[in-house]
Specification:
This protein is mainly α and 232 residues long. It has one domain. The longest helix has 28 residues.
Length: 232
Amino acid sequence: MAGGQPGWAQAQSIDDVLERMTMIESSLPPEDGVATFNRMYRQVTDLVDTAVDAGTFGAGDFLARLDVHFANLFFEAYAADQVGEPVPTAWAPLFAARAKPRTHPIQFAMAGMNAHISHDLPGAVVLACRELGVAPVDGSAEHTDFTTTNEVLELAKDQIKGWFTSGIVARIDEVGGRVDDAFAMFGIHLARAAAWQVSQLQWGLADNPRLDELFRENLARGVAFTSRGILL
């Protein structure tokens, strides 16, 4: 895992996160499916970092800590792959298909978003809440900041779409309306709202480790199934 590999100690700040994402981008060919997701994720993280610095969020350190825990889960998958260990189940379809021919970059990006938002984000919410001694409660300051992040993602959407329809990773003759369709189909806001609800379920399972384990295993398998469909 990331914490046990040289050079991949757990990120401690958003600056650490951005540094690691830059390292990943420089080490992979641009057409690699994991690189495609990483580049998009870095753009979003940069916007979140700017929003944190601007005082957009009101719940103290919650968004900054959430962002770090969230990114570390992706870095764990990446580090495992780098040393030939199995990547987490939810990430396996993206890493297995990263060089799959006739796969549009938007498919790689959506598969990564699916694994990261639908599977990793609930766990990251729980980790951030435990660290800060709060609970993932609807209507709380933390929930408000979590929801406000959607506005940041909305700003990123047009930038990301522009990247997929221009530059070295685009195939203009194939894109047409597919980028808009893909973003609409994935429904980032709905996926994040569902992730918050899942985090509440995981929070409530803290006193039942076996049930928590089964829940997480089934969640990972379901997310992996969806990603395989995205990558077809």
